[in-house]
Amino acid sequence: MLFEETIAKIGELDKEAQARARRRQDALIKPMGSLGMLEDVAIKIAGITGETMPWLEKKAVITMAGDHGIAREGVSAASQEVTPQMVRGFLNGGAAINVLTRHAGARVVCVDMGMAKVVDDPRLVVRRIGPGTNNIAEGPAMTREQARAAVEAGIEIATEEIRGGTQLLATGDMGIGNTTPSTAILAAFTGFPVPLLTGKGTGLNPEGVQRKAQLIEKALAVNTPDPRDGLDVLAKVGGFEIGGLAGVILGAAASRVPVVIDGFISGAAAMIARSLAPRAVDYMIASHLSEEPGHRIMLTWLGVEPMLHMRMRLGEGTGAALAFTIIDAALKIVREMATFEEAGVSDEGLH
Ligand SMILES: O=C(O)c1ccc[n+]([C@@H]2O[C@H](COP(=O)([O-])O)[C@@H](O)[C@H]2O)c1
Ligand SMILES: Cc1cc2nc[nH]c2cc1C
After folding, report:
1. How confident is residue 99, by pLDDT bands cut at 50, 70 and 90?
2. Is residue 23 in some structural domain?
3. CA nearest 91: which of 125, 129, 130, 132?
4. Complex ipTM above 0.90?
5. What PANTHER family does the record point to (predicted)?
């Protein structure tokens, strides 16, 4: 019942808190709206938390790993071995996500949602749904029960984090081949032509990208995912880490905790979350615009605007960790700037 209960618990934003936060922004010594998205994000967080001047001290990126049967078809420039190898890298603290979370004063929680190989390390959170998904070019990635179990694992992980005091969550991923299911999810929900949405991922050449697009078209034709049914899309053309991340988003939203969405794979998870619970988008903050060509369409469909344009395409939660520092700045503005009244600055003509 965790799945249904969590979805039912996702409430509306606190409109009064948002109105108070708006008034506070307009009282600060600057022309109204002149801090752009710094203002928007602070107001959104007020609506999520119910606080006019929130401060989110404890932050964590949940980086979920999984493998993909379709990787056998050569859809990635990298080999599948890299998934567990990078997970070891995360646990040992030497990956980009470790550097950027340290920079942001945040933690990384690394989760095995279903890699082909087992990584034996007590620092790894293990919620394996299976040893990688099935090849989506031949049939469904997983069963509907597995899709549901993946989402529920994500809900549980988010809820445990929040219980432990985490106030700001983010999604991150690791999985060789996972831009392929993410593109299939995007195509399933939007109906856009697959070649328009398909990108190089880790670094495919143009012929490789073309083959990848053909395999995605095949996966959609073989599986016919129902875009009105998020669990069906996840089960047929998704991935274990994508399902887990959709659960993290739903769990955060149900607990009124903001969740920062990383790049293309996290975006696919956000599409699944929105399809299961439309209100979940109110709790999402889009970190950056990925280099994957479909990402802009994905974010438009979600109705969220990315904060950063950094030409990043790494995943892991790196864009989200960077966005943490911007969110900190946005919340400091609200708390530390003087008002027109306090500073004795004239607001004539400005309001
Ligand atoms: O987050 C993104 O926008 C992003 C874009 C391209 C690639 N990635 C990362 O690269 C891997 C997937 O790329 P690929 O080519 O193996 O499908 C996976 O580990 C992702 O975290 C991530
Ligand atoms: C080295 C490497 C690091 C990654 N981090 C996320 N996806 C990745 C893919 C590769 C290939």
Report:
1. very high
2. no
3. 125
4. yes
5. NICOTINATE-NUCLEOTIDE--DIMETHYLBENZIMIDAZOLE PHOSPHORIBOSYLTRANSFERASE
